[in-house]
User: Fold these one by one.
Assistant:
Number 1:
Amino acid sequence: MQIKSIGDKGLVIIFEYKIDIKVNQKVKALKDAIDKKNIKGVIETVMSYNELALYYRPELIRYKNLKLIVEETYSSLKEEIDVNRTGIEVPVVYGGEYGPDLQEVADYEGLTVEEVIKKHTETYGYVYAIGSMPGTPYIGADNETFKIPRRKRPRLSAPARSMVIQTNQTTLLPVDQPTGWNIIGSTPIEIFDAVKENHCTLNPGMWVKFNYITQKEYDEIREAVESGTYRCKTFSY
Amino acid sequence: MGILIRKSGFLSSIQDLGRYNYQDIGVSPCGAMDERSLMIANILVGNDKNDAVIETTMMGPEIEFKEDNIFAVTGGKLELKLNNEQIEMYKEIQAKKGDILSFGFMKEGCRNYIAFKGGLAVNKIMDSYSTHIRGGFGGLNGRKLIDGDEIGFRAPFKEKYDYQFKQVEPEDMPGKEVKIRVILGPEEEQFTRKGIETFISSPYKIGFDSDRMGYRMSGEVVEHTGDGNVISSVSSFGTIEIPGNGQPLILMADRPTMGGYAKLGTVISVDLSVLAQCRPNSKIYFEFIDVEAAEELYIKQYEYIESIN
């Protein structure tokens, strides 16, 4: 574990350099412990796969002192972090107009489209972080799934709520935006809402299971989402 | 009421000091590129230093006052006119209903901040007035200003006979060659010694494709130990990412909260306001300083801002 500066208003705690659920859960545990402390001068905490950043106001607290508080908090964490086992089901329509790259993925993997969908829906995903654009989840598969890399030529624009993949990672796009990942489907749920109470559907440390739905179900869920009545199903993994 | 944007200029948007507390759900802070100038503009008109202002870029707007109010303009040096009379920058000015504020040619610097007394009548979204242009929320309808926009005043001020119009010394704007101080890290081990040496011993030009998201720099290739890609890590305002091509990218106000390129350092807070006023094609010379020295400089600026408040 290393503690370093990121500029003069940021402190970052860096754990083992790998995409690993146990490491990420340690980051989450430290984030929760520090958030609970409400340290004067700390504006907010942000986590990535293996790091936790604290943004602070130098006029209220200096890097030197903040580092001591962080070290103290870290040493007070439990040795074994209990891995969170709760998750939500994300409904997805695969292929067709929503997933223009699905066939390409199947061809690359040497599978049929049905086999790709089966693999993707049977795999549990873990949310390592939310970043890049508002609400965008970085979801890593619990095991080896696909090998397909990012596209050589990123797309200039993919529609909002597209589900895109590369190797073992999946993400959901909150708005129309460029993407270098492979578009395999679309979800009717809202990824991010600036105005609602719960801005984000997914949060770091959650598990995700993708559920295959039909176009009809997609339209029905979309209607429910827009009228504010839809709730994602939760599960324990 | 309030103001009518007759001409929106190159890129004008409503900003404050940024949207904090939501970076952990991927919401970029956005906010002013030049925080120092924004704060001074607000303080001049007696607003909270974090109130909503209009940030303009290079070619400024043409604004018609639909009702009386006081305003102040800070930032890049240019000829400012109220109707056909030249007015001063860094000074509180009373405008009357029907007055037209126009911006001339930008001589030095590149961004201006227009603060209106009592603030602008826009709602906070997620605790901030800042516009998240890519996300489409905040500020005025989540976008840059366009011709014909009307923005109300929250608490317009009509001149009183004994009102003391505040004024401060106009600030220097950066020239064509600028020294920018950086705190090393946190991914300095992704670069060779030679790479780090190159970064601080040769100039980098600000590319014309630079914008509120980042400044794309060009110059001598900065050498990596690996391929320049990292597991996506947290980015701050002024963080310098250097992808495989060895050309630095300085992340600015609209940066994504995380990024997958190796991060060599972060520009110090006080120099961000300088950098925000540097134009494309300017030459930047980077220099490392330690965090304590950078914090001292920041605190000095903080104390100055509090002293004029």
Number 2:
Amino acid sequence: MVYLLQNTILYTVPLMIVALAGVFSERSGIINIALEGIMVMGAFIGVVFVRAIIEAGLPFEYGQLLLILGILIAIVGGGLFSLLLAFASINLKADQTIGGTALNLLAPAVVLFMILDINDQSVLKVSNATEYFMLNQSDFGLGTKFENPLGVIGNVLFNKTYITTWICLIIFVVLAIILYKTKFGLRLRACGEHPQAADSVGINVNKMRYFGTCISGCLAGLGGFVYAVTIDDCASTGDVAGFGFLALAVMIFGNWKPLSIAGASLLFGLLKCIAAGYAYIDINNDGVFWLNELKISSHIYRILPYVITLIVLAFTSKKSRAPKAEGIPYDKGMR
Amino acid sequence: MNEVLKRLQLFLKKLGKQIFSLLRRFSKSLLPLWKRLCKWFRSLFVSTDDKDAKLLTLYKQPQTKSILSSLISIFAGIVLGGIILLIMALTSGGSTSFKSAWEGFQLIFLGVFNTGRDASGNLSFGLNYVSIGDVLFRATPLILTGLSIALAFKTGLFNIGAPGQYLMGTAATFIVALSIPTSVVPSWIVWTLAFLSGILAGALWGAVIGFFKSQLHINEVITGIMTNWIAANIVTSLFDNLTGPFANLLDPSGTKNKSYLYKTAHNGVQTAKMGLDKLFPGSQVNGGIIIAILIAVLVYIVINKTTFGYELKACGHNRNAAKYAGINEKRSIVYSMSIAGGLAGAGAALYYLAGNTEFYWSTYQSLPAIGFNGIPIALLAYNNPLGVIFSGLFMSYLNEAGMKLKYLTPFNEYITDIIIASIVYLSAFSLAVKEFLNGRRHKRNVHQPETEKKPQEVIKDLEAEK
């Protein structure tokens, strides 16, 4: 049970952040299919930086500081990479699907090229990453697992966790507040719903769209780095296993609203972890692996998140509210 | 005797006179013919007041601009790849030199025509039949997935579910091709059945996306992504070596040990070579490429020359207007997604029915790249089915060049992926390039209205005539 919850949180957090990235971009009017590519790029840049510093010899105490620095570098890298999409969509008025697909193809190609060039293998690994980054009970001063066994909540919050989880949650809440409660957020949302009206009030629509896409890229880069550190054990493989597209699905599933997105990511994370470890889930610690007894095939568990998404979408699609002007390049002459 | 000779002389003289007069008449008309030829050549390049030059008319057509901007972006992408190679050579110190960068650049341009290294260590070029044949072989699924996505784009839908349809086609093909014993049924019937079942499986899977879009108004991107992963899991569960119903199709021989399915050649089912293996000996080419090209031509005809294709295109342009015009747009969406799915399934069927391609059954963690590679192919071809043939061949050509790069130079094969990605990115500029190309013509035509007479002058002229 503890294992299930720990892994669920690890899987939910990057999904949430990348879905929020999609929200920022689409709310400003640019369809951002390139989330997968930007994640790959952010993961690569962060892992390269972290690896360089660890190989230069860093004592273990500075691991968390290094992680925060890595997060900052990944954010900057993701933001810069998304400028390509912003330039093509806003200045050149290109089809945003094409630009997104181009970035999705470009990022793994560049990343794999560089990885093979750096260390002649197809994966860029950082050794001892868990010792640097993972926080255990003892780091919080609560003693080791055997001296002071914590309950379920304690284990989930304080044992085998990363600070990235907390950082991402704080960033998520802050950005959701920015999107809904500040002037900037209102203007951003206006550019995605009715850019002509926004322009008539004096908002620079193109500048707002640049901001939206850049923030989206920063968040996707952050999500990619967090994915690499927590799920991939600090390795950059040039591939995020369809995570970016899954985040797009979560965003549409969550109806472009942050709270629903958080709920949808939790659901996906939970189902994915159940699928991965259903034979070992002991819900009430009585030694009985209940799900294993049901003898449902593991394939059914793996299909479950996607089927549930489709079913829920089938029932709630009437209320689906995409930003009205997304995907249409803004043309001043069309007022 | 003299009589005969005299008669012969007279006959020859007459013949000579006739030939001579024919030649004179011919040369009289030859000069005008030559003049006409010169005139035609001139009309290609020079515009008169009434008519534009023929090349200019060709240039003004929108298709030409599309092809031109595609070619420009391809050229720019390849040059970008060359620049990257140069940068790699500059920054990596001693391990890679300019010579290898130059060789890499040559290989990108002429990869197919490279025949390895000769005795002195330089690259040698000639006709490499194995490479050309392999390019044709690997272009087959790419052309068909490109067609699938191009057709969906033409009808206004983004078929990102192509990998899922590809996987369902693969599973159906293998099940039918390996289960029916060829000792009982002739192998060409099994081949046809397997091909058709691949198409059908892909079509049914595409119809799911179409149904969700038309009836429930769910975005086809999210349905496509979900069905991709559902298909990956279904295919894995079908062939699971412990519990799958078709686990008997797994190949236990050698090192594979039930991680791959039997190749279809195991049951004697293989695509006919159609003489292509004589043309390109040693390669893996078979008749599949011809079938793919025929399917592309068929799709072009259906889309552009039939009422059905017109209905599909109309629904893509404006769904509500099509409904107002009386087209059943819900059915059209389902049809177009089914056909797109069927095309992707056909690509899978042709690829695996070649007989010697293996399929790793545990595919629930990653989707086949061929499904996603159809997107740049369709985009480069501007969704024109005939253009998809060429861009599919081009992408396969670049992939082959990348393999050669990997084996012959210290660079790795991902440089071709970078080139393809930058070509797609630069093709997004094509709208800007087209406007640039249009803008020049517009500037030239601006002068013309000033030479027209003003209305008052025209009235004055008319009154003066009275």
